[in-house]
Amino acid sequence: MHQPLRSEGERLRRGFRDAYGAPALLQALRGDNACIRAEAAHGLMAYGQAGVQAALIRAGRDRDPHVRMWAAFSLGEVGGEAALPVLRDLENDPRDFVAAMAVEAVVKIQNRGTGPLRRRTGR
Questions:
Q1: pLDDT band for position 28 (50/70/90)?
Q2: In sequence order, which residues have a C-beta less than 8 Å from that of residue 9 and are 6 or more positions away?
Q3: Any residues with CB less than 8 A from the CB of 40 and at least 6 apart, and which?
Q4: Distance, CA of 47 to CA of 49 (rounded, Å)
Q5: Rounded distance, CA 31 to CA 68, Å?
Q6: Quick one: which of 3, 11, 102, 104 could link to 90 by a disulfide (CB 3.0–4.6 Å)?
Q7: What are the boundaries of each domain within the chain?
Q8: Which residue from 105, 79, 78, 80 is spatially nearest to 90, judged by alpha carbons?
């Protein structure tokens, strides 16, 4: 049976993530293209190693709202206490979708405790 496009997209995203890992995504997050930066911020949701949280915090101050939104999302998945100041700022972002994602991220971090980075599990 043919898989839905969403499943195929997820398979491709996982393949990229597994093939290139956090170093490639961290490099992409520093690029000039906002779409690539946003995808990189999204992809980093699966990594909890050192440097990821700091890069996502910086991305939370990006000029592009989609980068800020995905940074907030990923911080909600792998961020700790250090992410809370930028997320609190993003709760007041002029773009509603960024602010909403920041609110959700703060709740996730608070619900699991604000200790060190934790790798996201499951799904």
A1: very high
A2: none
A3: 25, 26, 28, 29, 31
A4: 6
A5: 14
A6: 102
A7: 5-112
A8: 105
Q: Name the token pair of 76.
A: 């909600």
- The two three-digit tokens of residue 70, written as one number: 């995905």
Of 1.25.10.10, 3.30.450.30, 1.10.150.390, 3.40.50.150, which CATH number belongs to 5-112?
Answer: 1.25.10.10
Q: What does the angle CA 69 – CA 96 – CA 116 come to, to the nearest 5 degrees? A: 40
* Residue 1, pLDDT above cutoff 60: no
pTM of the model: 0.78
